[in-house]
Design a protein that fits this description.
It comes from Mycena albidolilacea. The protein has helices spanning 5-13, 37-47, 61-75, 90-103, 131-158, 179-182, 187-191, 199-202, 205-223, 251-263, 267-279, 303-306, 308-328, 331-339; strands spanning 28-32, 53-58, 80-84, 109-112, 163-167, 231-236, 292-294, 297-299. It is built from 14 helices and 8 strands.
Length: 346
C-alpha cells in the first residue's frame, strides 16, 4: 500500500470517534511511557474502565509520580501504580520484567508506547546502540519477549485473550531502504552503529524505527501458534502534538509548528486509537492478530513490508533480533523455544 500526502491530510482532518469503553474489572493493564502525551491519555482512558491494576511504566520517578497524582485527580481511580523502566538501558528492562515475574500477577493488556525522536546526530546508549533504535525497537521487543509468558499464563488461568499493542506510525509508509542496507547480514548492528548514523541517515531514523516495529509485530504474530490466545498488533495514533519532536532544530522547528497548527491531533484524540487497538473486537479478537491498525480500522501496511524484499528483511531482522536480545538476556531464547513456532505463516 502507498500512503500519499493527501491521504495523510484527509486522515488528520477526519472526525475521530469517541473512545471505546470496555469493562476491565479484575484485569491488569500496563502502559509503557505513561507519564505524558499519548501514554498518559491512554492510561487515563483505561482508568475510567476500573481495571484491577493499572501500571504506569515510566522512566522518571518525579515525572511518573506527577502523572500518577494527575491521573487520580482527573479520573478518581486510586489503584494506579508507578513502575520505573528506562528503555535506553537493557538492564532496566530486565529489572522491570523481573519485578513483574515476582509480583505482577496477571497481564491482560500491554501497551508499548515509549519512544524517542532522535536528533540530527548520533547518540549512543550505555549499551552502545543508537538511542532511537534501542528505545523504539530493541528494548520494546525485549520487553515484549520477557512479558510474553505472563500474558500466556494469564490467558490459560483466566480464559481470556491478552493483547500486546505496539505503537508504530504511518511514517513507516515513507521509508525506502537501499538495497545494500536491506541485504546487509548484520542489518540491525549496521543501523545502530556510529558509522552508519550520519546526519543524512538520521533524518530517516524515526520512520525507520517504526518500520521495524511493524516488522516485529508481523514476525512475532507469524510465530505465535494459532491455538495461543494472544493478540499482538501495531497501531498508528496519527500525527499528534508530541514531545517527540523537541529535538528538531532550525527550519524544521518552523515547519513542525505549522504542521501542528494545521494537522495535529491532541494526545487525547490519538490515544483513542491506542485504546481501540487494545479493546476492539471483543467478540472476535483474532480479527486483529498481527494487524496494523490506523483510523480505528485494520489497514494494509506499506509496500516496503509486503514486497518480497520486505519479507526477507523481516525474517532476517527477526533472527538477528533474537540473537542480539538472547545475548542481553538468555531468557529470550528459552521463551522463543517454548512459546513460539518455527513453522511460520504470514
Amino acid at each position: 500500500m502507498r500512503f500519499s500526502l493527501w491521504s495523510f491530510i484527509v486522515d488528520q482532518w477526519s472526525q475521530q470517534p469517541p473512545v471505546l469503553q470496555v469493562d476491565l474489572t479484575g484485569k491488569t493493564v500496563v502502559v509503557v511511557g505513561a507519564n505524558t502525551g499519548l501514554g498518559f491519555e491512554a492510561a487515563k482512558h483505561f482508568a475510567t474502565m476500573t481495571p484491577g491494576r493499572l501500571i504506569l511504566a515510566c522512566r522518571s520517578q518525579s515525572k511518573g509520580q506527577a502523572a500518577l497524582d494527575k491521573l487520580k485527580a482527573e479520573t478518581g481511580y486510586a489503584k494506579a501504580e508507578l513502575w520505573l523502566i528506562d528503555l535506553a538501558e537493557f538492564e532496566s528492562v530486565k529489572q522491570f520484567a523481573d519485578r513483574f515475574e515476582r509480583d505482577g500477577g496477571r497481564l491482560d493488556i500491554l501497551v508499548e508506547n515509549a519512544a524517542v525522536g532522535p536528533g540530527p546526530k548520533y547518540e549512543a546508549t550505555k549499551d552502545n546502540w543508537e538511542i532511537a533504535l534501542q528505545v523504539n525497537h530493541l528494548s520494546t521487543s525485549l520487553l515484549a519477549f520477557l512479558l510474553l509468558p505472563a500474558m500466556i499464563k494469564t490467558a490459560q488461568q483466566h480464559s481470556t485473550t491478552p493483547r500486546l499493542v505496539v505503537v508504530s506510525s504511518d511514517t513507516h509508509y515513507w521509508v525506502k531502504m537501499d538495497k545494500t542496507l536491506s541485504e546487509d547480514p548484520d542489518l540491525l548492528k549496521t543501523l545502530g552503529s556510529a558509522e552508519y548514523c550520519t546526519e543524512k541517515n538520521m533524518k530517516q531514523r524515526y520512520p525507520l524505527s517504526k518500520l521495524f516495529t511493524v516488522f516485529f509485530v508481523r514476525a512475532l504474530n507469524a510465530r505465535i501458534p494459532p491455538s495461543t490466545p494472544l493478540i499482538v498488533n501495531a497501531v498508528n495514533p496519527g500525527y499528534c502534538y508530541s514531545e517527540l519532536r523537541r529535538s528538531l532544530v532550525g527550519l524544521r522547528v518552523v515547519i513542525n509548528w505549522l504542521m501542528d497548527k494545521a494537522l495535529a491531533f491532541s494526545s487525547e484524540v490519538g490515544s483513542r486509537r491506542i485504546v481501540w487497538a487494545a479493546l476492539s473486537h471483543q467478540e472476535h479478537p483474532d480479527t486483529l492478530r498481527g494487524e496494523y491498525v490506523s483510523s480505528f480500522a485494520i489497514q494494509e501496511v506499506s509496500d516496503a513490508v509486503l514486497s518480497p524484499e520486505g519479507v526477507k528483511v523481516q525474517d532476517r531482522s527477526w533472527d538477528e533480533l533474537v540473537d542480539i536480545l538472547g545475548k542481553v538476556d538468555p531468557r529470550v531464547h528459552s521463551i522463543v523455544e517454548k512459546y513460539l513456532s518455527r513453522d511460520i505463516s504470514m
